[in-house]
Amino acid sequence: MTNWKEIDEKAKIWVREAGQRIRDSFESTLSIQFKSNPNDLVTNMDKEIEQFFIRKIQETYPSHRILGEEGYGHQIDTTDGIIWIIDPIDGTMNFVHQQRNFAISIGIYENGIGYIGLIYDVVHDELYHALRGEGAFMNEIRLPMLKQVSIEEAILGINPVWVTENPRVDYELIAPIVRKVRGTRSYGSAALECAYVAAGRLDGYLTMRLAPWDFAAGIILIEEVGGVVSDINGEKLDILSKSSFFGGEKQFHQQIVKDYINK
Ligand code: IPD
Ligand code: CA
Ligand code: CA
Ligand code: CA
């Protein structure tokens, strides 16, 4: 039997230690590189923090596998066994330009089932955390279950790019949602936006393209407070595949999928 409490305690210690390393790095000059395009940034800290987690996990749990955004983990094609899905810095653009609004995100899964979700807002020292069946917390303060919300009263996290002409979605599908909700917000860190859904600061977060490391922790947090997570069509997410993402309060989620997406 997997001792999730022990793994959870260790993971929390490592996340806080990694956060301290990131805060310390504000004093030094970053080395910034481009990945797929000039807006897709990566820094020495993204790489160092991913390697930090890999060292810790491999020393302590050599049988666990690791899927990390920066590619220092394993090549993973099956959900068998225990997998740590790590985004060392989610919101790298914010990290580089703003030194805030970024997070460390870690989801820990066993045979495809999410057990631990950790999203650490490094600058605010706020650790959002969920353990399967035990609820979700922010710095050990329990997050309440989400309250029902109508579309008219909802605040939706969404990037404005999805209401411009783009190859991923017909923006005329998304624009009516943006018009109908009370307000929209765009924070530039998928993990933080998921944490905000879990904390009730956003009623939903919708995006057309995310990777497993962006949502692995967020799924667990949102589900632990009674929220629902799916792709934009309401279908179950595959934890190892890139896809669209829509997480939110149950009634709001259902209404959007039924009345606006699959109408
Ligand atoms: C990105 C952020 C951003 C989202 C992008 C992600 P990264 O992650 O979460 O908010 O819109 O799709 O790639 O690259 O900063 O870890
Ligand atoms: Ca990235
Ligand atoms: Ca990310
Ligand atoms: Ca990242």
From TrEMBL:
InterPro entries: Inositol_monoP_metal-BS (IPR020583), Inositol_monoPase_Li-sen (IPR020552), Inositol_monophosphatase-like (IPR000760), Inositol_monophosphatase_CS (IPR020550). Pathway: Polyol metabolism; myo-inositol biosynthesis; myo-inositol from D-glucose 6-phosphate: step 2/2. It is an enzyme of class 3 (hydrolase). CDD domains: IMPase_like (cd01637). It catalyses: a myo-inositol phosphate + H2O = myo-inositol + phosphate. The keyword Chaperone does not apply. GO terms for molecular function: inositol monophosphate phosphatase activity. Transmembrane segments: none annotated. Its cofactor is Mg(2+). Keywords: Hydrolase, Magnesium, Metal-binding. Its EC number is 3.1.3.25. It comes from the Bacteria. This is inositol-phosphate phosphatase.
